[in-house]
Amino acid sequence: MDFKYPSTVWSDEDRRDIMVNLLEGQAKMLYRTLPNRVKQGSFEGIVKELRAARNNPCERLQLLEQWDTLRKKDTESVNEFCFRMESLSGRLHAESDRDFLLASKLHHCLSHWRDSYHMLAELDRPEGDAYEAVKRAALRLERAQQARSARRDGVRNQAPECAESRWRKRRGFRPESESRRATKEHDLAQKETTAKKCFKCGEVGHLAAGCPKPKENGDRPTKHKPSLGRERRTPPKPKAGSFSAYVKGWCGEVREDVAGNETEAYGEPCLCDVTVMGIKAKAMIDTGSIISILPLGLLRQALKSGSPLDEMVTMLGAGNDRKVFDASGNEMRFLMLVATHVDVHGGGSARVHFHIHESPDSLILLGTNALKQLDIKISAGRCREVDQ
């Protein structure tokens, strides 16, 4: 009031009326409880009575409780907290004691911070300089915390790329270096197995103590003679480190080998052609996945081709409402859950729910949530060759 409405320009009555019109809340209520002689009195008289009514024991107890429980909020900056603390101290403490009380309170509220001893060292300043020194130290620590948080966010942003590599590995895309390493381990296991040779039957893969062939005439190995009835062939000797050698040692008997179909060590992914969002794409059928995944790279292609994504795609919410884990037990993170129409070439068509994955690839993954609606089935039975 003294700066905006000085007594040299405004009369005492005008200053009194202006102040009364500006009162709000508790101050307005206190003014109404004043006697009429005070209300009709001078400007300074009203100010004096309001200050006296405000400094009652109940209000001071409330201010002391607020000061004792004062803490910095997680979303609050140091400057904002200092402003709130200074406002409360101005109503509670005398001017002569305010500097050290503010400095000690700021250090107490931030003592759990890393390197908070810098604020403790600043408390040993001359009277009148302690609070500003502690405040400057707190601002430096706040900037250091923000820099560390930014570095952690940068590392966290690289996590989707690691999840993508695990996803590709689980789907059968093995890097060449890993395949070469697996081949070396297999060769080493074969060499170790080859070193085991039975001196009774002459076969490799087991020792004499575990030889499955029966003993005849002591420890001499027996010779197989052809019988006069049904002709039987002597089982061929297994190759070095073959699987049959282990089976013979486990079962303790020799059976005739039966020729059959043999699979390869690694198969090819099951892919199909689909049309989604107005563009043609490749989709991998994965019966081990309970969700269907739409890569961000395919959405970028659809956007560049001019497809009306807002009309073709329906947003269903966040993609991380339910936790989904890959085959290695790692939690997968997604950008959004959407629904769009999918047309399988040579199959069916349906509106499929997709989890959008932050991946630059364009390969769609069709899980078990969409296979039935798209007429994609897996049947067990003997395969027959069809003449073209």
TrEMBL record:
Question: Which Gene3D superfamilies does the entry link to?
Answer: Acid Proteases, Zinc finger, CCHC-type
| Short name of one Pfam family | zf-CCHC
InterPro entries for the chain: Peptidase_aspartic_dom_sf, Znf_CCHC, Znf_CCHC_sf
SMART domains of this UniProt entry? ZnF_C2HC (SM00343)
Cellular compartments per GO CC: cytoplasm
From what superkingdom does this record's organism come?
A: Eukaryota
Keyword terms, alphabetized: Metal-binding, Zinc, Zinc-finger
- What SUPFAM superfamilies does UniProt report for this protein, alphabetically? Acid proteases, Retrovirus zinc finger-like domains
Q: Where along the chain is composition biased (Basic and acidic residues)?
A: 145-155, 173-188
What organism, scientifically named, is this protein from?
Answer: Oesophagostomum dentatum
UniProt region (Disordered), positions on chain: 145-188, 210-241
Q: Know the name of this protein?
A: Zinc knuckle
Which Gene Ontology molecular function entries are recorded, alphabetically?
enzyme binding; nucleic acid binding; zinc ion binding
> Domain CCHC-type spans what residues?
197-213
